[in-house]
Amino acid sequence: MTTAQPATRPANPRFSSGPCAKIPTYALEKLADAPLGRSHRAAVGKAKLKAAIEETRELLNIPADYRIGIVPASDTGAVEMAMWSMLGARHVEMLAWESFGSGWVTDVVKQLKLDATVKTADYGQIVDFNTVDFNNDVVFTWNGTTSGCRLPNGDAIPADREGITICDATSAAFAQDLPWDKLDVTTFSWQKVMGGEAAHGMIVLSPRAVERLESYTPAWPLPKIFRMTKGGKLIEGIFVGETINTPSMLAVEDYLVALDWARSIGGLKALFARADANAKAIWDFCAQKDWIANLAEDDATRSNTSVCLKFTDDRIKDGATFAKAVAKRLEKEGVALDIGAYRDAPAGLRIWCGATVETADIEALLPWLEWAFEAEIEAQA
Ligand SMILES: Cc1ncc(COP(=O)(O)O)c(C=O)c1O
């Protein structure tokens, strides 16, 4: 017997984990104020870039003495410019529990060739932060986008640490509470929780990170797009909108529009609440079903943005083929786009729950998930 299709479809089937769904009120016309065809160094361009920085500070409650810069190459560019500029001054601990964190380990061990201490956890778990010595420099990813496992809080990071913390927070920023006093370098891109465009990254530096930049010169060469100092002094212009190279003013405008939307719905708390409600709808669904479960083993580490799910039904013959077929079936029906697990992650699904996704769309998707699961069980028999 074939299960009937649910009656309602999500109004927006875009559940990709990056680039993520645009803001619910999105329309291209909203970008009309972008100063296209003008220099980004003209007053109008500089004002837009400075607004993007200062409005980010305000929305995320970033302390006044932290520097915020817009940098090239999205989140990857921001993480790598931090690691290349600051690491090597003291021993490094690299923490990873999924693919992106592992990528930063490769950077540090194989490219920078540092003799780092590497601590990893399997997909579904996170590294125990109580085992970390924060007198070393420590690099980690707050929310593992490809495993759906996040650091619940920064309590294990001591305030009086001697090392600096470098945190890839790209799928956490704007959805999860980031303790700025525990983070010396924080990076993210506009394309995740804010539904912005990729290509530009943001880097947030604590005063201690700036001190490191001004007191330490790495042994290796730094390309221009990684250089944040000149003559041993911070290039302050970067942190007021004088970007290292040319940004897309269309992408900047898009981000400003997203920030405006965030303010209009109530700011950071409202963004958090939207992601929480989206993720909770999926968690509650999983709790009622015996064939699907969160990849995160500990509820405290469950992501409220990149929710990763695994199928747990004994009847499934080939997990990877099954999960791909479910995702394909949902895509074909136009009810969920891009929800297959990341290529290096365990077989399953990943449903983005960041603030730009509507809870009603998640709720409309869930019966379809059950429909696709049943259909695939039948199809493989
Ligand atoms: C945790 C994490 N780090 C880094 C990246 C790479 O981001 P970007 O492509 O914006 O550089 C991603 C993208 O999904 C991510 O999830």
UniProtKB/TrEMBL annotation:
Name its pathway. Amino-acid biosynthesis; L-serine biosynthesis; L-serine from 3-phospho-D-glycerate: step 2/3
What UniProt keywords are attached to this protein's entry? Answer: Amino-acid biosynthesis, Aminotransferase, Cytoplasm, Pyridoxal phosphate, Serine biosynthesis, Transferase
Catalyzed reactions: O-phospho-L-serine + 2-oxoglutarate = 3-phosphooxypyruvate + L-glutamate
Q: Which cofactor does it need?
A: pyridoxal 5'-phosphate
* Gene3D superfamilies xrefs: Aspartate Aminotransferase, domain 1 (3.90.1150.10), Type I PLP-dependent aspartate aminotransferase-like (Major domain) (3.40.640.10)
Per the UniProt record, which EC number(s) apply here? 2.6.1.52
GO MF terms on file? Answer: O-phospho-L-serine:2-oxoglutarate aminotransferase activity
Q: Which SUPFAM superfamilies match?
A: PLP-dependent transferases
Q: Which family does it belong to?
A: Belongs to the class-V pyridoxal-phosphate-dependent aminotransferase family. SerC subfamily.
Can you name this protein?
A: phosphoserine transaminase
What is the organism field in this record?
A: Marivivens donghaensis
Question: What lineage, starting at the top, does this entry show?
Answer: Bacteria, Pseudomonadati, Pseudomonadota, Alphaproteobacteria, Rhodobacterales
